[in-house]
Structure formats: C-alpha cells, structure tokens
Amino acid sequence: MDCLFCKLRDQTAGKAVFEDEQCFVLEDLHPQSPVHLLVLPKQHLAGPGVAGPEDEQMLGHLIRVAAKLAGARGIAEDGYRLVMNCNRLGGQTVFHLHLHLLGGRQMEWPPG
C-alpha cells in the first residue's frame, strides 16, 4: 500500500502527539491555524464513504479524541473546528480518513 498516513503511522510510532490502540494524532505539516492536528485511525480507511457499520465506534472515537485534545490545547472553551475532507472536490489529498482539529483563531464561514 502506498498510503502516506500509513507510512507515517509506522514511522512516528511512539512520537505522535497522542496515540492509543485505535488512532494516532500528528501536528499538521502545513498548519492553517495556531492549533492544527490530524486525528487518524490506525486502520486504513480511504474515507467515510467506504466506512461500514463496523467502523462506527472508531469514527466516534476519533471525535472524542479530538475533543479531548482541544481541551488539552486550551481551545475547547473558545471553540474549534473539526473538518473531514471527503474525496477530490471536498479537498481530500491523502486518501486515508482523518479529522483536522483546528483552533486558536476565529474561524470564518463559509470555510472556503
């Protein structure tokens, strides 16, 4: 498999911002806000369109981890944004499902 995030999962083992049995979290290499983390499942899943009922618990877990990290980074009270880009027109460039946790500044609407 030639998935960038699967390679990063293996290369960053033990070096992630957060890691548990289901997911790992990395700082985005091109941050769009003062806090910009990527919350990724350890299992490869190209995107939400291919997720099945067996993936529901893992998807919920990603959101809970993001909320926990928002608190740890001090952005939970003021607010933050969770983004999941889906497919090419949705802005997805790496086809491994992941959440962007963005915060630390005023978010604009519409997002772009």
State the gist of this model:
The chain is α+β, with helices and mostly antiparallel strands. The chain has two helices and five strands; from the N terminus they run H-E-E-E-H-E-E.
Explain what this protein looks like in three dimensions.
- This protein is of the alpha+beta class and 112 residues long.
- It has a single domain (4-80, 98-103), classed as HIT family, subunit A.
- It has two helices and five strands; from the N terminus they run αβββαββ.
- The protein has helices spanning 4-11, 56-72, and strands at 18-19, 23-27, 35-41, 80-83, 99-103.
- The mean pLDDT is 93.
Features:
112 residues, 2 helices, alpha+beta, HIT family, subunit A, 5-stranded antiparallel β-sheet
The major pleated sheet works out as: 5 strands, antiparallel
CATH topology: HIT family, subunit A
CATH H-level name... which superfamily?
A: HIT-like
Q: Given the helix and strand composition, which structural class is it?
A: alpha+beta
Tell me, briefly, the overall form: globular
Give the number of helices.
2
CATH class: Alpha Beta
Low-confidence stretches: none
* Range of helix content: 10-25%
Mean pLDDT across every amino acid position: 93
The CA-CA distance between the termini, in Å, is 31 Å
Q: Indicate the radius of gyration in whole angstroms.
A: 14 Å
Elements, N to C (H/E): HEEEHEE
Q: What is the level-2 CATH architecture name?
A: 2-Layer Sandwich
Query: In which order are the strands of the major sheet placed?
Result: 1-2-3-5-4
Give the number of DSSP strands. 5
Give the number of domains.
Answer: 1
